[in-house]
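Question (not urgent): is this output format expected?
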Amino acid sequence: MTIRLLSVLLTAAVLVGCGGKDTDGSTASTVPSDPAAEPASEPAGDSAQPKGDFAVTAAQMQALGIKLQRLDSPTEIRGLTYPARVVVPPQQEQILSAPVAGLVDRILVAEHQTVRRGDPLLRLNSPEFGELQLALMQAANSARLTGQTLARERNLFNEGVIPQRRVFEAELAANDSQARLRQSQAALRLAGLDQGSISRIAGGGALMDGLLLRAQEAGTVLALDVKPGQRVSGADPLLRVANLSELWLDIQLPADRANAWSKDQTIAIVGSKLTATPMSVSALVSESQTVTLRARVDAGETQELNPGQFVQAQVPFADSAGAWAVPIASVVRQDGDAYVFVRTPSGFSAKPVKVVASAAQSVSVDGAFKPGDEIAVSNVIALKAAWLGESGGE
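Got this back:
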C-alpha cells in the first residue's frame, strides 16, 4: 500500500511540476477557479464512496509543495460587490416652486451653499402677488366696515329702534367679510409671505412689489433651475434644497439574488469606512433584470458621499452564520460532493463540506471543523490523487 501511495504521489508531483500539460501541448489549470467547477482531470473509480483518511508524510508534503492554513473560528465572507447610487430620502429634500407667476429678480444663494431655516433664497417680482395683497387689503377694509355696522345695528336693536332681522343681516355680512379676510391671508401665506407682513398690509400698510422666498428647512442647495430675468409660471420649480444628514443607497442586485442578502448585517461601502443598514428590496424587476436594494447610510462622516454619486457596496450573504471562510483553491469535488483536506497526525482526512456562498477567491463552507484544524490550501489536486488512489481509485 505504501509503495502504491508513493507512486501516486510521485505521479501527481510530476503533473504539478509540469504544469498539467496535455499531450497536444495545451496547459490545464491545476487548481479549479471555482469550487463548483469539476477538476480538469477526474480520476476514474468505482461508485463506492472513498475513505476519508489517508497517509501523507511531512517529507511528501514538502516535495509536493502543499501548504496549510489554520482555522481559528467560523468566519463569514463579506459577500459580493454591486453598484450603488447615493440618493436623498424623499422626506429630506424640498423643491422650492414659484407660488405665483412672475419674473425672477435676484437669486440670493449659490449651488452647494448651506442655508438655515428662514434664510432668503430668491426674490420674485409678480403682478399676481400685488393682486393678492390688494385682495387682502380690500377684505380687511370690508371686515372692519361690516364689524362697525354690526356693532351699530346691535345698539339700535337694544334701543328698540330696529327689528332683530337687521341684526341677523349685519351678523351675516360680518361673517362673510371675515371669511374673505381669512382666505386672503391664507393665500399670501401660501405665497410665502410672513405673518408680520400680512398683518401690516391688512392694517393699511404699503404694498410690496416683490416676494422674497425663504428656506423652509435647513439644508444644502443642490440645484438652481432658474436664472435672474427668467419668467416663471405658478408651480414652476426654482431650486432644490436637501438635508444631507441622512442618505440612502440604491443598490442594483441581480433578480435571482433578490433574497440572497442578510437582513441582520451591515453593508460595507468599498473604499470608505461608512456602512449602510439594509431596509427593503423592490418588488419590481427592471428591464435589465435587476432589483433595487435600498439601504440607509449609518451615522458617520456622510460628507464623504454626495447625492447622485456611484459607489460599490459589498452586500453580505444570507444564512452564512456559523460557516467557515476558506480559500477557493482548498475545495475539491468528487461525485458532485465538495471536500476539504484536514491535516491529521498521519496525513489528511477528506472532510465533506457544503458550500454556502462564494465571493472572489474565498468560499464559505459548512462542515465538521473545530478551531485549530489545519487545511490544505495549495496543490490539493495531488492530495486528491493520493486520496482516491489509496481508496481504490485508479
